[in-house]
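REQUEST
  id: r-88c1
  op: predict_structure
  target: Nuclear transport factor 2 family protein
  payload:
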Amino acid sequence: MTETLVDAPAAVTAYLRAKTNTDVDSVVGCFAPDAVVHDEGRDHVGTAAIRAWAEGVASAYTLTRTVRSVRGVGPATVVAVEVAGDFPGSPVVLHHHFTSTDDGIAALTICP
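RESPONSE
  id: r-88c1
  status: 200
  body:
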């Protein structure tokens, strides 16, 4: 994963590593205080809501993640991640659309 993400913003790289390690505190630490995560049709606004979302995903499934591609450099980055685990339709490639600022990840949209 490190080689693939060499040009991605530091917060994006840190987020993907934290998700791989199921480290909720580190996941939350990657986001700006007023960040928005859009996943499975729902918005999670602010770090408290992002923490609840990350904890829910971590407790609901056993997952493995493999970065397949990275597009864009700078504030807009799209990372294709193959996610496999104990959920219907596994494995699936999910596209993670990141918007980064100096404060960390400002927005993340996850979609097929």
